[in-house]
Each structure stands twice: as C-alpha cells, then as structure tokens.
Amino acid sequence: MTSSPKVDAVELEIIKASLDGIVQEMQNSLFRTGYSTIVRESQDASCAIMNAAGDVVAQHVVLPLHIGSFPACCQAVLREYDDIAEGDAFLINHPYEGGSPHAPDMCVLTPVFANGELIAFCASIAHKSDIGGPVPGSCSGQAKETFNEGLHLPAVRYQRAFERNTEIERIIACNSRTPVLVLGDIRGQLGSSRLGEQRLGELVRKFGKDKALTSFERLLDLARIRMKAAIAEWNDGRYEAERFVDDDGVRLNQPVRIHVIVEKRGDEIVFDFTGSDDQTQGPANIRPPLVQAAIAYCLIALVDPHIFINSGLMRAFSVKTREGSVMNPRFPAPVNTYNPTVHATVEAVFAALVNIVPSKARADGCGSRSIILGGRSTKAGQSYVQYEILGGGGGARASKDGASGTSVNQSNAKIAPIEIIESEFPTRVLRFELIPDSGGAGAFRGGLGIRREYVNLQDARFSIRSTKHIIAPNGAAGGGTGRTGDIVVNPGREDEKRLPTRYADYPLKAADTFNLDTPGGGGLGHALARDPQRVADDVNEGYVTLEAATTSYGVALVRTGRKFEVEPAGTEQLRARLKAAHAS
After folding, report:
1. For residue 461, what are the β-bridge partners?
2. Sign of the torsion formed by the C-alpha atoms of 353, 358, 364 and 368
C-alpha cells in the first residue's frame, strides 16, 4: 500500500487558489454564453468542481443552496452508471432522484479523468426559463405534486465521446415553451464544464494526479476543522426558534411552521427540524439537501463570508429532519416554490444561533420572489417567458442598517435591468423605486423594499411566487418589523385584484398594469436608541418620512434650506414622552 504524497502548505494554497479560479472562470463562461435573461442577467446559476465521490471541493458561491444540490445530483449519476468514460456528460433535474431545488434547476455534469482514472466532476446548475407543466415558467404556486411541475429527468447521459444525444434534446425541446433558450443554456453549461475539465487537467499535470487528489481530501478536512474550531468558541446551550411561511399556495391563510432546536456542546452542533409542520399540499416543501445547505450558509455567514467553500463544511454539523415533513417530504410532494421555506429555515436558524453567537444578531429580511409572464409574442411570433427575480430589504445587523433593494440570505440572484426587460419582452416598467418607511424601525434600520410597476403590452399569463405578504419580517432585540409585500393588478380600477403570495396563471390583458411591493427588512434595537443625525439623514435621503421620524424614532426635525436638521431640545422632549408612553 503506497502512502499519499506530501503536499506542503505553499502547494496546497496554490492548488486551493487555482481551484477557486477555475470555478470562477467556469462561472464567467456560463454567464457570458447564457441565452436566457435568467442566466445572462439574473445569474441564477452556480458552478462547482467535485471529487470522484461527488463531494464539492470548490464552488464559486453565487447560489449557496447548490452546495447541497451538487453532491446529490452527482451521486445520482454514480448510482445509475458504472461505465462513465471520458467525453461523457450527464443531465439531471429531479429533486428526489438527485438534489435539484426544483425541476427548472438543471444540473450538467462532466467527468474528469487522469491517466484513465476518474478523479473529478465539473458541474453547473442553472435555472431554465420553462420546462413544461401547466403554466409558463413551470413554477405553479398551486401544484399539488411534482407531476404538475414540468419535465423531470433522472440522471441521463447527455454526451458520449463528446457527441450530444440529440434525442434527449428533442425531448426537452418538445416539453418547453422556450426550447431555444433552454437548449442554449444547457449547451452553455456544457461548455462551462468542458472549460473546467481543461483547466483542471492543466492543474493536475502541473502537480501530478496523486498530489492533486491528496489536496482535494486535505481541503475538505481543513474546511471541517476550521468550522469546528469556530463553533467550539461559541457559547454552549440548547435553543429553539421558529418562523412561518405565509401559506403553501393551496391552503391559503394557513401558515407553514418551520421549527428548529439547536444544541451546541464543544465543537459539536446539531440542528433538529423534526418539530416542523407536516409536508404541505402546495409546493412549499424542501428536500434535505437544501436543509443542509441552508445551515451551511448560516454558519459561513457567521464565521467568515470569504471562507473556502467545499463539502467539508457540511461535515462540521448534524441535521435531523422528519420524513413526511415540510423539510423532508415524501415523493411526489410538490417543491417548486421552495425558496420561501428556505428563507424561513435560514431565519429560524439565525434566530436560534443568536443565543449562541450574540455578537452576530440580525433581523429578518424580505425573503425572495419571482414574477413570471408568458405568452406568444405578437412581434416575434414565438412563445416567450419573462422571468424576473426581485429582492427587497435586508434585515438590520448588530452594527449596520439593512441593505435596501437587494437579494437576501441564500437568494443571491440579480435584478434584471429595465432596459433588458423592455427590449426582450412585451412589457414596460413604469416605476422602480424604494418604498419609504418599509424598513423596520430600530437603532439600526431595516433595509427598504422596492416598488415595481408594470404595464402589460399584450395578453399574457401571469404567476408569482413570493413570501411575507402576510407575515412581516421580524425585528430583533426590540426592533420593528419590516413592511409586508403586496401584488395588485390594475390598482385603482374597477377590476382591481390583489393576488395571494403565490398565484399561478392569472390572465393579464393588454394594457393591464400591476404593482409589486416587496417587503422591507426588520429593524434591530429600539428605534429611540437610533442616532438622531442618522434619522435626519434618512429623511433627507427619502428613506424615512418626516412623520415616521417623529412617531417611530422620536426625532424632532427643522428644515434648513433644502435639508432637515435635528432639533436637540425637541428631540429630547419627544423621546422622553415616547419612552414614558411605552413604559405605561
């Protein structure tokens, strides 16, 4: 038996940096060759390098949940194929057979060989504009089983000896309203993986196969060791927290409970979700790989946002879920609008961990949402799917205000530019602005939500999957809640209609308008403890109204020229009255 070759610290650091650079180059290639606005503009995709067992050894973090998805997808390939060869490529998008968050997230994997030995996989996961199902965009908020969520592929061989299986492409194309975009994005993913293979091959030739493989294992172990060392410094204890999702899209006005117990002793930490609700009828369920990834995201955020990302981090903690629950549903429970549940999971974990790591307190953010319009373009004569991902306000942190108009938590996609939306789809954006007072009041203010107003230029089918339109983002340490979201079609008209948090297939007519308000983040600390000058700055910037400055923050302002300035004596009196009122 031969021993593993020694890799010194300098070589290991070079290999680690090289792996990170390779994955970033793969990512850049994917974004630059993306056909759809989802990939090209919103960047709803991630790339990774895995070892021969499917463990992630390097991931360029765009979408944190994919650290759980990649191994599950790769292991599905390894289960199904024992004849993997150079020049192969595989596709999978099945949430139960593999680890895709939902069916539109398609994974492309290619094996990497050195001296005839399988040593790694290069892979990407990217959201597809449409893979069939009852509604454009394949994300029905009223789906009751996965069969309502579009085409599902188990692990299938997409290429053999670098030749594409055109029969698989024909099947995909015939099940999509936007076949050109979907196949274009898949081929872009394939090109990204082939680029990764080339670069990884160069790295292996430089250091040798044995040193490269030894480095893979060492990096996994170092990630685990570093995370456990950080956990060991935290307070011991057993704490629980919960958050709620508005509803599951089918049983309206019935919140979905996400409950976690966190128990930490020394460098061991366990996350127990067995007290969460049973699996839902509607598509609010999430699979265990996403639960694990959500926890990893929380720990990374608390320890070091710049930590090297690999599967070793997942070995630093344990997770318990209950089969048949919203956190571990039985097939074929629907999963396509999974993100609100993941946000609730992340926020429950953070809320429990604040007792263990009190210096990293944070309030809840806006969650995530997407709007989807589909129809047949009268200009191009082809079907289109307008898919947009929109953020809102981030929760306030222990020493900072929440960010405004941004994605929060694991939802790291970008908001597509108005110019792109208007040039590619039959719609116009009439308004895109921050909503004053939407951030929760506090010593540190929650980030502001956004208002986006559209006019539809032709008949279309409209769907939304959102969250926190009913249950507001929580504040922390006495901070106020963020403002809830809202979606209204034709506001102010006789046919005005307010839609639920998740809704599928609303028939929009030409000249219909709709307004989307996204939630603001929660505040942290009592509002009367906020620096009065910061309140004045917020009023001058339009983030906080003059009324809220007085009633929420207890700050008296006077206009001097074009700006408001703090009136110290009036502020002192006003805050004294408000404190007395709160005490009574």
Report:
1. 374, 507
2. negative
Strand pairing partners for 565?
Answer: 558
Which amino acid, one-letter code, is at 164?
Answer: R
- If you write DSSP's letter for every residue of 110-127 in order, what string do you get? EEEEETTEEEEEEEEEEE
Calculate mean pLDDT across residues 510-514: 96
For 397-433, give one letter per residue: b (16+ CB within 10 A) or e. Answer: bbeebbbbbbbbbbbbbebbeeeebeebbbbeeeeee
Distances (CA, A) of 294 to 65, 123, 299, 345, 535: 6, 20, 9, 7, 34
H or E stretch covering 16? helix 9-33
Nearest residue to 60 (alpha-carbon basis) of 303, 354, 310, 343: 310
Q: b/e for 359-370, b at 16 or more Cβ within 10 A?
A: ebbbbbbbbbbb
What count of Cα atoms within 13 Å lies in the side-chain half-sphere of residue 263?
7
DSSP 524: B
pLDDT at position 2 is: 56
Give the model confidence (pLDDT) of 428-441 as tens digits.
999 999 999 999 99
Q: What angle do CA 382, 136, 253 make, to 5 degrees?
A: 160
Q: Each residue of 115-152: pLDDT tens digit?
A: 999 999 999 999 999 999 999 999 999 999 999 999 99
Respond yes or no on whether the N-terminal peptide bond of residue 332 is cis (omega within 30° of 0).
yes
Residue 97 CA to residue 75 CA, distance in Å, equals 9
178 close to 385: Cβ distance less than 8 angstroms: yes
